[in-house]
Specification:
By secondary structure, this protein is an alpha+beta fold. It is built from 3 helices and 11 strands, in the order H-E-E-E-E-H-E-E-E-E-E-E-H-E. The protein has a single domain, classed as Beta Barrel (Cyclophilin), CATH 2.40.100.10. The N and C termini lie far apart (33 Å).
Length: 193
């Protein structure tokens, strides 16, 4: 089972009895990044592990609210955080408030799994409460075992980790806050393209 899951998460393909199946377009989140990093990131969504979180991400992507949202917190060797649809829009970005906002939808209950936080893992950001995830999420640069089973994993980068790795970093002394951040220019579900 572990080898089976690892195969899904590391390649974006499911292999059964020698047949390979690509991730379904309905469960691939596309992010066009613009700034220091430029290109498209493809994230396989994992509804079997975090159905409520995946549904929320799809709704927000389809509503268009992730378009022009900045990567407001980016820490070298750790992760790039984005998704603040209230204070993180490029047109009204205020560095001191970014990371404090969410969507108009209610917060989500945690959906923890055994998936480890490592390079390419995509998890939901939250406040102190375990059940406070809303719209913000982060993409990992490296392994961080301290996050395992404490944050909900809802996806995995299957293409474009090099783009993730090029996202402009913030100052560690300022908790990764980025002054002139890269943006998610456009976010959509692959099947909707």
């Amino acid at each position: 089972m572990i080898k089976f899951l690892k195969n899904i998460l590391s390649t974006g393909f499911l292999c059964i009895a020698g047949f390979a199946f690509a991730a379904e377009p309905e469960n691939i989140l596309m992010i066009e990044v613009q700034g220091s990093a430029n290109g498209i990131i493809e994230i396989e969504l994992l509804p079997e592990f975090a159905p409520s979180h995946v549904e929320r991400i799809k709704i927000l992507a389809r509503d268009g609210v992730y378009n022009n949202v900045v990567f407001h917190r980016v820490i070298e060797g750790f992760m790039a955080q984005t998704g603040d649809v209230k204070f993180g829009k490029v047109e009204n970005f205020k560095q001191r408030y970014a990371g404090q906002g969410g969507s108009n939808y209610p917060d989500l209950e945690a959906e923890f799994s055994d998936i480890k936080f490592e390079e390419g893992t995509v998890g939901m950001a939250r406040a102190q409460s375990l059940n406070s995830a809303n719209s913000q999420f982060f993409i990992m640069f490296d392994r961080s075992p301290n996050l395992d089973k404490k944050y909900t994993v809802f996806g995995r980068v299957i293409k474009g980790q090099n783009i993730v790795n090029d996202i402009k970093r913030g100052a560690r002394s300022n908790n990764g806050s980025v002054e002139i951040p890269d943006i998610m220019k456009r976010v959509w579900i692959k099947i909707d393209n």
